[in-house]
Design a protein that fits this description.
Strands 1, 4, 5, 6, 7 and 8 form a six-stranded mixed β-sheet that branches. The chain has a two-stranded antiparallel sheet with strand order 2-3. The longest helix has 25 residues, at 115-139. The radius of gyration is 16 Å and the shape is globular. The protein is of the alpha/beta class. The chain has helices spanning 68-74, 77-83, 115-139, 142-145, 154-166; strands at 13-20, 34-35, 40-41, 43-49, 55-58, 62-63, 88-90, 101-102.
Length: 168
């Protein structure tokens, strides 16, 4: 569970997810680990970073088909950030997460965004750019790009990688 690992109320945190393990071992029933969106087996790992992209927390792995918002709610990430008074920036997968989470505005069906909405979306993307660099740094670990282990073991690996990243 996420604890106070670097959460500073004077700073915002950012929430994102990554699909790991493109070639996870599919022993047994692998349907839960198959992501139809990504067309591969893997796991969903939630990532919390500080404003400069430093990793603060990695969640235990959930099955690859788990939606990002469902995963965040499962790990109670949003509630913990709210309790600590830390605002959260997130991508559009987290729309509907609550007032504490800032997400981009989705284009209405058959319509267009206003100039103000597009400008706000660009500003949010710019604020999230360091987070995406932190995600890229996380994905530089080969175990996340090409794992041939059981998805059940990815939680232990994410803990180890987070520890190593903090000492880098």
């Amino acid at each position: 569970m996420l604890r106070h690992n670097g959460l500073d109320p004077s700073k915002r945190s950012s929430l994102d997810q990554t699909r790991n393990g493109s070639e996870c071992d599919r022993v047994g029933d692998g349907r839960a680990d198959y992501s139809s969106k990504h067309k591969r087996h893997g796991v969903n790992v939630q990532v919390v970073t500080d404003p400069v992209g430093k990793l603060l927390w990695l969640s235990p792995a959930l099955p690859g088909r788990t939606h990002d918002l469902t995963a965040a709610r499962t790990h109670k990430i949003l509630r913990i950030c709210e309790r600590h008074g830390v605002p959260v920036l997130a991508d559009m997968a987290y729309i509907g997460a609550g007032d504490w989470v800032t997400t981009a505005t989705r284009r209405p069906p058959g319509g267009e965004l206003t100039v103000t909405e597009r400008t706000l979306n660009r500003a949010l993307s710019a604020a999230r750019a360091p987070v995406e660099r932190g995600m890229a740094r996380l994905k530089s670990w080969q175990i996340f790009r090409r794992s041939r282990i059981s998805p059940n073991r990815m939680s232990v690996i994410t803990k180890a990688v987070l520890t190593l990243e903090r000492h880098r």
